[in-house]
Amino acid sequence: MVSGMGTMVAAPHTAAGATSPPCPAKGYSTDVCVPISRLPEVVVETKRDLQDSGLTGPMVGHVGDGNFHCILVFAPRDTDESQRVHAFTQRLGRRALAAGGTCTGEHGVGLGKRALLLEELGEEGLDTLRRIKTALDPYNLMNPGKVL
């Protein structure tokens, strides 16, 4: 899969494969984006948070724009671990917001980051996004009943 690709192009493809656990597990990728000047501090805090939470999740990114990902590997049937993953992703999003960044770099908001998006944009910002979505999708065919 990677042969023939340049090193920079191949890295994102091999990072996900490197997280493959030896037992049945699920990978959950989340991302944030922060000002480059705050990136080192946020990455260090995030690594500490992962360790303190007892979670497995390499961090990868194309950090030239302040965007990085955590690929969390966990057993989905382990309720405690699933809750720790959810709590971690919320803390990561809030950490990015506190650093002047965004709760999502490129993966989108999804159901898991709805509350964070409200914290980031406020009700007025969300209303603006809803109006844009309505203009582009008047029949609500695209992802109905989700974030907007």
From TrEMBL:
Assigned EC number: 1.1.2.4
Q: What is this protein called?
A: D-lactate dehydrogenase (cytochrome)
MF GO annotations: D-lactate dehydrogenase (cytochrome) activity; D-lactate dehydrogenase (NAD+) activity; flavin adenine dinucleotide binding
Instruction: Give the family from UniProt.
Output: Belongs to the FAD-binding oxidoreductase/transferase type 4 family.
According to its UniProt entry, one GO biological process term is: lactate catabolic process
Q: Which UniProt keywords apply?
A: FAD, Flavoprotein, Oxidoreductase
**Which Pfam families does the annotation name?**
FAD-oxidase_C
Please list the coiled coil stretches: none
* Ranges where the FAD-binding oxidoreductase/transferase type 4 C-terminal domain occurs: 27-147
For activity, the cofactor(s) needed are:
FAD
A GO cellular component annotated for this chain's UniProt record is:
mitochondrion
- Tell me what organism the protein belongs to: Hypotaenidia okinawae
Recorded hits in InterPro entries, A to Z, give: FAD-bd_oxidored_4_C, FAD-linked_Oxase-like_C, Vanillyl_alc_oxidase_C-sub2
Q: What class of enzyme is it?
A: oxidoreductase
